[in-house]
Design a protein that fits this description.
Number of helices: 11
Bound molecules: S-adenosylmethionine
Structural class: alpha+beta
Radius of gyration: 27 Å
Helix content: 25-40%
Strand content: 5-15%
């Protein structure tokens, strides 16, 4: 078998980590226009990191390690590498997500590296199939999850594929990398509501803007039609509800309350900072991650950990009803026998 000549990639040599980290930290607070608003995905990867990593994997390091592309001094290679760093620094900024000038620079360098690689492998027996300088390799993430990697691969100009065991992940990926490109650059076709008739006919419908406008128009249509009444039960009006632990003596109970929850309530008993550190609900004493892993796990294995019913969610005629549990509810819940239990092995070492 003829060996493939693989030039060392930028990611194997160096990355502008500070710029990537800063962009990733900032991305956490972006809501508008971010795929995280499409559907909640618990292990969503930051787009900035995915974009930087794919770029750095596609681009050859200018240092010419592995013996290819010699003829450049260390200093010259550094200058060229710094140019690649600058592209990454621009690429990871949220406001450049759809900046065609920045993306164009990145795509051009990816093509350049790919052509270098094809040139190196032009005598490979399968060169026509594997090293076509006119066709970039396709990208496939078989465990795509929230789809950050296939989305960013597509943005960088690669033909992108995603798959996953979980149908929710598949739906997210379909929406982002399959359906959207099908409508890219198209004008909206949905009916405008009567009071919007004079909307401009010369809008910029580049990218997904036309599709987004169609979604807006159809939502408007549904909102104004009888449809809204018919499907009302599928979209219950959200009245803010939260569970408030109430400490009584050395015990506690839960109350269901409505309205805006107190600041920081979404963190529960989680302590600040990184890691699985918590505090005791009653005494507020800190409970470290290592204590939970060792002591609490041992208590659980010795079957000395209890469980408390926090709330009851019932389907009412006009939406969900949330009830605070009574002692009687808790006793009934404790008696309930599950009709199913997992039959797989639980990993011995987590
Ligand atoms: C860590 S997440 C994916 C992370 C993703 N690559 C990213 O960068 O955001 C792992 C994913 O693998 C999927 N998965 C696990 N086992 C699988 C299997 N046998 N076939 C396909 N997908 C699988 C899970 O459903 C989950 O979405």
């Amino acid at each position: 078998m003829t060996a493939v000549k693989t030039p060392k990639k930028l990611i194997e040599v160096a990355l502008p980590l500070d710029a990537i980290n800063a962009a990733v930290a900032r991305e956490k607070s972006i809501r508008h226009g971010h795929p995280s608003t499409l559907h909640l995905w618990w292990a969503r990867r930051p787009l900035a990191a995915a974009r930087a990593v794919i770029f750095a994997q596609m681009v050859n390091d200018p240092g010419g390690e592995h013996g290819y592309f010699s003829g450049m001094t260390k200093a010259q290679a550094k200058v060229k590498r710094d140019e690649l760093f600058k592209i990454i620094e621009d690429l990871v900024l949220w406001e450049n997500t759809n900046n065609e000038e920045v993306l164009g620079r990145a795509r051009a360098v990816i093509w350049e590296s790919w052509r270098e690689t094809c040139e190196l492998n032009k005598r490979h027996p399968q060169a026509a199939e594997l090293f076509d300088p006119e066709k970039l390799p396709a990208f496939h993430d078989p465990f795509a999850g929230g789809g950050a990697l296939p989305l960013e691969a597509q943005r960088l100009g690669l033909e992108s594929y995603a798959s996953d065991l979980n149908p929710v992940a598949v739906t997210i990926n379909k929406a982002m990398i399959e359906i959207l490109p099908r409508f890219a650059g198209r004008k909206p076709v949905g009916p405008l509501s009567p009071d919007e008739k004079q909307a401009s006919l010369h809008e910029d419908w580049s990218g997904a803007k036309g599709l987004a406008e169609d979604v807006r128009r159809y939502i408007q249509l549904i909102a104004m039609s009888r449809c809204r009444l018919l499907i009302r039960s599928c979209f219950p009006v959200r009245r803010g509800r939260y569970v408030q632990p109430v400490i009584e003596g050395d015990g506690y109970r839960f109350e269901v309350r409505s309205g805006a929850w107190p600041a920081g309530a979404e963190n529960g008993t989680k302590a600040g900072g990184r890691g699985a550190n918590f505090h005791c609900l009653i005494s507020r004493a800190p409970v470290s991650g290592s204590y939970i892993k060792a002591e609490v796990k041992a208590e659980g294995q010795a079957r000395r950990l209890g469980a408390r019913l926090m709330a009851i969610v019932a389907e009412g005629m006009r939406g969900r009803v949330y009830l605070a549990p009574t002692a009687e509810h808790e006793a009934i819940a404790r008696e309930a026998k599950p009709t199913w239990r997992p039959d797989g092995e639980v990993p011995a070492k987590l």
